[in-house]
Amino acid sequence: MRSTALAFSLILTPFCASADMVDDILDQQILPGMETLASTSTTLARAAKADCRSNSTLMRRAYDDAFDAWMMVSHFRFGPTETDNRAFALSFWPDSRGKIPKALSALVRNQDPVINTPEDFATASIAARGFYAMDYLLYNSEITGASTAEYHCNLFQAITADIANTAQLIHNDWQASYADQLRSPGDRYQTEGEVKQELYKALNTGLQVTADMRLGRPLGTFDKPRPKRAEARRSRRSQRHVALSLQALKPLAIALSVDNVALADKFHLTFAKAHKAVERLDDPIFASVADPADRFRVEALQQLVNDIRAIADTELGPSLGVDPGFNSLDGD
């Protein structure tokens, strides 16, 4: 009898650990993160209503808070954020073809009435929506200077209201049904293994975006650095985004480690090294990549992020029973 009970408990333990892992990630990371995104985005829209000047301290502060909130959940790019291209509506980046300034300039030049209602603006070019459009408008006088004061104000209010609405829709969908689909596989996710793969992919993709895009794009090559490709450089948020990404990804990596203390400790140590490397940079827009004597600091940070990726690929993936060989930016 005792052996039967022991055998049953050994079978049940991995299931319980996995269920607890998903609950922990949902209740400690995803759900509160999406709630913060919705609330800070609403505050941003209200700030634009109160003071729509591009140099408004109130609006710039609200923009930073809402953008920070997005950065803390942007790696959970599945489910509600995929619906109707909501993630792209919030963060059209990288913009390798310069579509954002073109889209915004076209709106301003034509005094386009598409900004007059939320329903119409939701059909506007996705490049004219979201946080990166705000990065241009708040910190680029060439675009805002070509606009009348009234249109300028209405454009700010249209974009911030659209951000707030998109964020609220994402939050609502997580609360209404999507969290339950992760907790109880059987519909969208057929098995717990599929849930674990989705969460693992979120971690892997987040690390890849930080290493290859947030750091790799401005680094370019030694002979041809690309500092102007740094993310959100106009608002001087490039380094901050790397720091926030690491801050958000660390608890996800540790939660996915479940009861593997050695693996969790390894993540703790490697993330701590990366955090210290970010703090030591003191280079908000990665301007140092253009200096052969200083770019090694950014390269060293990129290597630390890749070290974390290697741990996820070679140790975490197999421990979860997930194939680590797929390209996380290509989807399933």
UniProtKB/TrEMBL annotation:
Question: Signal: present as a keyword of the record?
Answer: yes
Q: Which CDD domains match?
A: Imelysin-like_IPPA
Q: Source species, please?
A: Parasedimentitalea denitrificans
Q: What is this protein called?
A: Peptidase M75
Region annotation Disordered: residue ranges? 218-237
Imelysin-like domain span: 30-306
Could you tell me where this protein is found in the cell? Cell envelope
Pfam name, any one: Peptidase_M75
Please note every region of biased composition (Basic and acidic residues): 223-233
Q: Per the UniProt record, which residue ranges are transmembrane?
A: none
Q: Which UniProt keywords apply?
A: Signal
- Gene3D superfamilies named in the record: M75 peptidase, HXXE motif (1.20.1420.20)
Residues of the signal peptide: 1-19
Read off the lineage from the record.
Answer: Bacteria, Pseudomonadati, Pseudomonadota, Alphaproteobacteria, Rhodobacterales
